[in-house]
Amino acid sequence: MKLTLHRSTFMQELQKVQRAISSKTTIPILTGVKLSLNHSGLTLTGSNADISIETFLSVENEKAQMTIEQTGAIVLQARFFSEIIKRLPEDFFTMNVIENNQVEITSGKASFTVNGLDADNYPHLPVVETTNQLAVPIQILNQLINETVFAVSQHESRPILTGVHMVLKEQQLLAVATDSHRLSQRVIPLGAEHDQFDIVIPGKSLIELSRSLGELDESVEISIMENQVLFETPTTKFYSRLLEGTYPDTNRLIPNSFNTEIEFSVRSLQAAIERASLLSHEGRNNIVKLSITASEVVLYGNSPEVGRVEEVLSYEKVSGDPLEISFNPDYMKKALQAFGDTSISVRFISAIRPFTLEPTEGNGAFIQLITPVRTN
Amino acid sequence: MKLTLHRSTFMQELQKVQRAISSKTTIPILTGVKLSLNHSGLTLTGSNADISIETFLSVENEKAQMTIEQTGAIVLQARFFSEIIKRLPEDFFTMNVIENNQVEITSGKASFTVNGLDADNYPHLPVVETTNQLAVPIQILNQLINETVFAVSQHESRPILTGVHMVLKEQQLLAVATDSHRLSQRVIPLGAEHDQFDIVIPGKSLIELSRSLGELDESVEISIMENQVLFETPTTKFYSRLLEGTYPDTNRLIPNSFNTEIEFSVRSLQAAIERASLLSHEGRNNIVKLSITASEVVLYGNSPEVGRVEEVLSYEKVSGDPLEISFNPDYMKKALQAFGDTSISVRFISAIRPFTLEPTEGNGAFIQLITPVRTN
Q1: pLDDT beneath 50: ranges in chain B
Q2: B105 to chain A: nearest residue by CA?
Q3: How many structural domains compose chain A?
Q4: Rounded CA gap, A101 and A119, in Å?
Q5: Best B7, B74, B99, B113 residue to mutate vs chain A (most A CBs within 10 Å)
Q6: Comparing C-alpha atoms, which of B218, B246, B248 is closest to residue B232?
Q7: For B110-124, what is each residue's pLDDT tens digit?
Q8: Residue B75 belongs to what domain range?
Q9: Residue B238's closest CA among B348, B158, B138?
Q10: ipTM of the complex
Q11: Do A286 and A206 fall into the same domain?
Q12: For residue B84, which residues of chain A lie inside 8 Å, CB to CB?
């Protein structure tokens, strides 16, 4: 393998696949990035136990200005390799695989010789049948992820809850995540008919996917395999393993009758929750209390050691029974973040039943649920 | 104590004194900031075992827009207090000390009540005689610090070497730091005659001092006490303890005859050292090798496990004997950083004797020394 190409263009591709590469893996070759060059271009691959990312830099890519002298493949220790590329002196550089899997990397007067590994020993990525693909705009997919993934469980005690449940049926894609204290669910209508699926994707994979997709104005093709899912754009393939097991039936958790309803501006409630949680974080229970009456809505935070805060909240509309309810402000903060700068309706049954949050202008497409904390 | 003032102006002062406040101290009251209000303004104090910072917000400060209702003093847990101030809803806020050292902090509809401590129990700062003061422009002091402090020892095995040695005599201020592997020394001429001094200031104190002085276009008054030094600007007092003991005689370490001399542009040498150190960091010894002949200057880095690098260096001038010398590239990197974007002369005696680095246009006012590593 021997080629010369534009350094920063290559660096961008390398950084994409590096998202999948961990230096902590127990499989040495997976600390490496696989470079595979044929006459149509250069493929970069990074992988760990959960995800694999493959990007392709075409010989026709004008920014890359690739000069291919000899095709071939090699695996190079990713972190170290990227440090070298980053620090090379010139805009272009040459990689040349010499004997014993050694690679010469030259740029200007600097010449590195680094030890690589045989690309034949790199694990193969799953082969995908290109039927049964679903195309979703990247922006929509990112929104779906950002609105749900924060609610997955961080604990391995129930592994299935560390993933986002995605269900495609009846011309809609539903994503739901819960850690059993709070839940977030988004439904996206799809234009056309698709084969249905029901999968659970690890939350960590989706966070990496969202980062690696970026802000692109393209669509991503989703393919489901036996135990993998592939997200594919014209230049990048992102594979994730799926979680095994049955996801709990979350639909029955969402209540549909209420006794108290209040509308807030997200930004103003967010600021008040931040203030109240300053105190609750110092206490043992980390709870804040919301008191709703017809005349006044007040938020309380308290820590016996440090002090207390109370704040009369601004709201847009209130109706129903008076209520005092306590909850973990961190769940509320995350929920509000996911809504962005809008108005929400918060609906309560009682102080001990989960309450829901929805955009005021919503149509049930995005709903969140928070379980309160009993204080007596 | 009761006053109302501009939140972000107060926050700036609070952040200054917070540099001196550690949450890890074993003396509980030192986790707090002392606020002391009289009719001329508000004094904020933060302190730890090494440094103390006191700032003053005058009632005449137009940005602060202070309304003083009652003078007094209180100590508040600094980290927590600043989190509250940061998150208050309005541009102004009111602090009111009520009973039992509790403080009401109100802004808009938010009202905090936090537990404080009696200001009478806060330790007193040293009293300074205002004779024997030396005025230095902040910019010059910052330069002096940045050119030397990186070379102090990080190890407590020889505590005196963790400080910067500052000597004022014969109308010049000399600062020198060494960790016994490298040394950095700067001399600043002073206009007028001053009482001489010879002190060692902890490197950590100087780093904090430099950060807290910022980019101000003012002078700082330096006063020496028994075991403290005070750096004072119109609004801020910065105290540091001094290190006890005798600083080694570093003057005899600096050689004055040489056999090889080479001139480099700092930026281009820096980039090459960065590249070579990529390899040396992977090896056990962390050394790079410089080879100087009349025709070529080459830098080598090598790690048996990972690979090697060699780079023909650009230089401005070379003279004297050919030489091969090995050294720790990290010392070189730090030394080059301190020079900034200029040209330097590097002068060698032999492969086993310390070599010096000086700005080519320098006049001995700034010199650095690096001890090579013997490789056989």
Answers
A1: none
A2: A309
A3: 3
A4: 9
A5: B113
A6: B218
A7: 999 999 999 999 999
A8: 2-121
A9: B138
A10: 0.85
A11: no
A12: 275, 278
